[in-house]
Write a structure and sequence with these properties.
Helix content of chain B: 10-25%
Shape of chain B: elongated
CATH topology of one domain in chain B: Glucose Oxidase, domain 1
Distance between the termini of chain A: 54 Å
Distance between the termini of chain B: 24 Å
Shape of chain A: globular
Number of helices of chain B: 5
Strand content of chain A: 25-35%
Largest interface: A-B, 64 and 60 residues
Oligomer: heterodimer
Strand order of the largest sheet of chain A: 15-14-13-16-17-18-26-22
Number of helices of chain A: 17
Number of strands of chain B: 27
Helix content of chain A: 25-40%
Radius of gyration of chain B: 28 Å
CATH architecture of one domain in chain B: 3-Layer(bba) Sandwich
């Protein structure tokens, strides 16, 4: 199929909008032709997702003057240059996406691996239960009963390990008699991916009460995770159960050439392909109205987390509840009354489609976005860890370096690229606002490229990558990613702001930046320059704590941003000083209109 | 997308309201199609399976799970009484027995020889669903519930807390821009739904709940007060299960905000009428807004059924709108122009805007996303 692809149609059915894109091979390269969108039609009065899909495709037809639909059918294969497409693919997060519950014996081992498998498949993990989670058995049963997940992933025990603990978990799930979220006429899917020797017992306990599927153990030994079989099963059941019960999806599933992927699963695949393709460490973040997803690939290991209740519209109040009002206020370059801020946030929650009209409102929304991103990233760092419980061989010299297992894989110094997506980042009126939000929330260290997804095309490209990886990567770089530029951020702190921090030499030009300052140097998209970076004592810039570094950096719409505010980063505690500093940085980077 | 405006909340003198009344799990429907029901009539009932309580029999008897069978006196499905012995060891010559007594009245759900665990289940809890509104039963969902339908005055709020409640509409202020003050609440408001103006405070809410007032419908509330009243910050916008003894419906938003004239007048007209309200709000897939339903004469239902729903024409020059974001939040005006091209606003974002003349006479330009259509 891969070689024949000339025209690709892809849709993403989001919870509010369905987006369609058309990709064509022109000469040797795949390029985006156009994009159409229409409101998603999963809810009443339509209750048929294909209405929205057809509307979005019709917009593509209108914009390109091509005929893609014959009545209500996608014309396939392509008849000629102006009629039909070779392949139609889709992702979906409508109806709240895939919501799962996971269970394992040890919270930090099999239960954590199960959570990673579910997250990696694109699910929201509603709850994790484990034999050692300190809850009483009846409390676990109560949780299973109260939440109505789309499916449960049960793991536990390495192969040959405990049987009784995992059987106990199965008994609790069975006793809770969990009901699926959609419909009453079918049993809840439960995937068992635990100790293979417990399979018969699990079958006996759960087979009659649930729709049980058994796959290979996701943690066959303590030293190894095997998440792929569980992930694949989750995708399969997502299609069979969740999607098939959502309005109109049966029809949509017939139309698509490959399985419909959960939207975040597709974005994750793309980031994963990208990092592996370029052999780099990457982070992607997608901040939506309801949820914020973070994806990372460090040392080839992919991780995804979803912060189900951190977002900029439906979940905006939860950002306030989780971060606290002070943490939001600290990003505001002006004084604002806490009570007033609270009302503004709530009013956005109840009318989520409104947009900031005044500059001050925009600044407040971007302050909230920083906190949503920061919190989502903190959650990600906690989940993206090495395997816990792994036995380590130690020599005498290691006994003094008590490195724990399960430390985070996220290393901001080795990070090569940070990509943002979602309205708050992609639609910020000035691109540099997106760049600064990413820098403030993620606090990259050393040299890091920054980019944003121009029109939220990553889901489409993620599912395309499953069919044609090269086409997906090509379109990603040429039409999807907007390079924002490069951030140079020395690590370390000085005693006070204003002391020398770093010297940057580009060609004949030399620039000295003091601690606590930010500077922006123009360098356009596609431009690369060699730079020499030299930090003062107390700071470093390279992964091996180098104070001097010669490297090539690439430009973007925001150019090069030198962030000499130090790492760890601290905002001044004094209000007046803080507002002054924020205002200085805003002015230095030309973030807002004067 | 051409329709960027927010469709307004429904505030209407007369419309047909249909509500599904379903059990959380299958049970028995106790009314028939065509029955006239009042808001308190039970329409369906069932029994929720009782909570389960696992008990580690093998551990308590100090025997291995595989050997458990020989010590258990009951089997799966058996009824048990609290303190009844369900398993015991043989002891020595019949003495020194270790016994496990049931901690509950209920049944044995299962006994496992793998985990050594018995699962006991409490007796079921009866669950009943009432009709919620004075209405007629129009549809049956076998073993699940019914659809009830009535002609009613209907007001949607923007945000609420607390679940369903029924009471008598009792206006408490004479103008929509007046806040409710604590001295206005008296014991006479027990069982009433208070209609306020622009603001309710935590003190008013507490006093109203204390005297047994069932609901408050008002323009605005300070978020700070809401947090004080609930004792926590609302995270995601899913409400309805708060148990504060009172349901609250906010019609405009957070802060002090005069209730829209039309809403206020309509509620005042219904003084002393019986109403059903629900504070439940969900702002996500499947938006659910809080509501006030004031059922009207049943004979009007048939007449109204003949009429087709008015089709909303969307925004056009002359449409009445309300601005739903700063600046001019809450102002009402009429659309004077709808320029099709994108325009740059103060934030530098390029968006579709509209021009409007506010009631004060001021002419403003507002992003279309920041207005809501006032449906006539």
């Amino acid at each position: 199929m891969k070689d024949e692809l000339q025209t690709i149609l892809a849709t993403d059915c989001g919870s509010t909008t369905t987006k369609a894109i058309l990709i064509e091979k022109k000469g040797d390269e795949y390029r985006l032709v156009t994009r159409g969108e229409a409101p998603t039609t999963v809810e009443s009065p339509f209750e048929d997702v294909t209405r929205g899909v057809l509307n979005a495709i019709r917009e593509v037809e209108e914009l390109t003057n091509k005929k893609i639909l014959e009545g209500e059918k996608v014309i396939k294969p392509r008849k000629n240059e102006n009629e039909g497409v070779d392949i139609y693919i889709s992702t979906s997060s409508a109806g709240g996406g895939l919501q799962m519950m996971v269970a394992g014996v040890v919270k930090s081992m099999t239960a954590e691996s199960a959570a990673r498998a579910a997250l990696g498949a694109g699910a929201i993990v509603m709850e994790t239960i484990a034999s050692n989670d300190r809850r009483l058995p009846h409390q676990r049963v109560e949780i299973v009963r109260r939440l109505r997940p789309d499916m449960i992933l049960l793991s536990g025990g390495v192969d040959g390990g405990t049987i009784s603990h995992v059987a106990e978990l199965a008994e609790l799930i069975g006793a809770a008699d969990p009901r699926p979220r959609f419909g009453t006429g079918y049993n809840l899917p439960v995937i068992y991916a635990g100790n293979k020797e417990a399979r018969d017992i699990i079958r006996k306990i759960l087979e009659n009460k649930t729709d049980l599927a058994i796959v290979d153990n996701l943690r066959p030994t303590l030293e190894r995770e095997n998440l792929v079989p569980a992930r694949n099963k989750i995708h399969e059941l997502f299609m069979e159960h969740v999607m098939a019960h959502a309005p109109g999806y049966k029809k949509l599933m017939d139309w698509t050439d490959v399985s419909i992927m959960p939207t975040p699963g597709a974005v994750g695949s793309l980031i994963d392909y990208l990092a592996k393709h370029e052999e780099i460490d990457a982070i992607g973040v997608d901040i939506g109205g309801a949820t914020t997803d973070v994806f990372s690939v460090f040392g080839g290991v992919f991780n995804r987390t979803v912060s189900a209740n951190l977002g900029m519209s439906y979940s905006i109040s939860n950002v306030l509840a989780e971060s606290g009002v002070e943490n939001i206020l600290r990003w505001a370059p002006f004084d604002i009354d806490e009570k007033d801020l609270r009302n503004r946030i709530r009013n956005k929650m109840i009318r989520p489609t409104t947009i900031p009209q005044t500059l001050r409102e925009l600044e407040i929304e971007q302050a909230i976005a920083r906190e949503a991103l920061r919190l989502a990233f903190v959650q990600h760092q906690k989940m993206a860890v090495g395997l816990k419980g792994v036995q380590q061989e130690r020599t005498i010299s290691d006994t003094f370096a008590q490195a724990a297992t399960g430390i985070t894989l996220v290393d901001m110094m080795s990070l090569n690229i940070l990509i943002g997506s979602g309205g708050a980042l992609s639609h910020a009126p000035r691109r540099v606002q997106g760049a600064l939000m990413l820098i403030d929330a993620f606090l990259p260290q050393g040299i890091t490229r920054l980019g944003v997804d121009s029109i939220f095309m990553m889901p489409h490209l993620g599912v395309l990558a499953a069919v044609n990886e090269d086409a997906a990567i090509e379109v990603f770089y040429k039409d999807c990613l907007i390079p924002l530029g490069t951030c140079i951020a020395p690590v370390g702190n000085a005693k006070r702001f204003g002391l020398p921090c770093v010297k940057i030499t580009i060609g004949d030009e030399e620039l000295r930046v003091n601690y606590g300052d930010m500077v922006r140097i123009p360098l356009g998209i596609g431009e690369n320059k060699m730079v020499n970076i030299e930090t003062e004592r107390g700071f470093y810039i390279g992964p091996n704590k180098e104070r001097k570094l010669d490297t090539e950096i690439s430009g973007g719409v925001s150019g090069i941003i030198i962030d000499a505010r130090g790492r760890p980063f601290h905002l001044p505690e004094n209000k007046e000083e803080r507002i002054n500093k924020l205002s200085e940085w805003i002015k230095a980077l030309d973030v807002y209109p004067a | 997308m051409a329709h960027a405006y927010t469709p307004g909340l429904k505030v209407t003198k007369g419309t047909i309201i249909a509500r599904e009344r379903r059990l959380p799990l299958k049970g028995e429907v106790v009314v028939s199609i065509g029955d006239n029901v009042t808001c308190d009539t039970i329409v369906a009932r069932t029994e929720l399976p009782g909570d389960v309580q696992p008990i580690n029999l093998a551990g308590l008897l100090s025997v291995s799970p595989q050997d458990l069978e020989g010590y258990v006196l009951k089997k799966s499905g058996d009824k048990i009484k609290k303190d009844e012995v369900i398993a015991e060891t043989k002891g020595i010559f019949g003495l020194m027995k270790t016994q496990v007594k049931s901690p509950i009245d209920g049944v044995i759900e299962s006994i496992s020889n793998v985990t050594g665990q018995a699962i006991l289940r409490n007796p079921p809890t009866p669950v009943e669903v009432d009709a919620y509104i004075d209405a007629k039963v129009t549809k049956l969902f076998e073993n699940e519930g019914v659809m009830v339908e009535t002609y009613a005055t209907f007001v949607q709020g923007i945000f609420g807390i607390g679940g369903e409640a029924k009471g008598i509409i009792t206006p408490i202020v004479d103008s929509p821009d007046k806040p409710i003050t604590i001295d206005m609440i008296t014991p006479e408001h027990k069982g009433k739904i208070i209609i306020g103006g622009s603001l309710v405070t935590v003190d008013v809410l507490r006093k109203a709940a204390e005297i047994g007032c069932v609901g408050i419908v008002v323009g605005g509330i300070w978020d700070y007060d809401l947090k004080e009243f609930l004792g926590y910050d609302i995270g995601v916008a899913i409400t309805g299960s708060e148990e504060k003894g009172i349901s609250l419906i906010i019609t405009e938003g957070f802060g002090e905000m005069a209730m829209a004239d039309k809403t206020f007048k309509l509620l005042i007209e219904n003084k002393d009428n019986k109403a059903s309200i629900n504070g439940a709000t969900q702002i996500r897939a499947g938006v659910m807004r809080p509501e006030v339903i004031i059922p009207k004469e049943a004979k009007q239902v048939e007449e109204e059924k003949g009429k087709k729903d008015k089709i909303s024409k969307g925004l056009e020059v002359g449409s009445s709108i309300r601005i739903i974001r700063e600046p001019h939040f809450g102002s009402i005006g009429k659309v004077t122009n709808l320029p099709p091209e994108l325009q740059k606003i103060e934030t530098e974002a390029k968006v579709r805007i509209l021009e409007a003349e506010l009631e004060s006479g001021e002419k403003v330009k507002v992003p279309r996303a920041n207005v809501e259509l006032i449906e006539e």
